[in-house]
Amino acid sequence: MTTAHDYGEGIDPERALKYVIQHHLGDRTEIVEGVISNVTPSWDHENAAEEIRDQIRPRVKELDCVTGSGNLDLPGSPNWYVPDLAVAPKALAKGGGALLPDQVLLVVEVTSESNCETDRVVKRKRYAEYGTPLYLLVDRLDKTVTLFSEPGRLGYTEVDGPHPFGTPVRLPEPFGIDLDTSAL
Question: How far is CA 61 from CA 87, 114, 164, 173, in A?
Answer without folding.
Answer: 10, 33, 28, 14
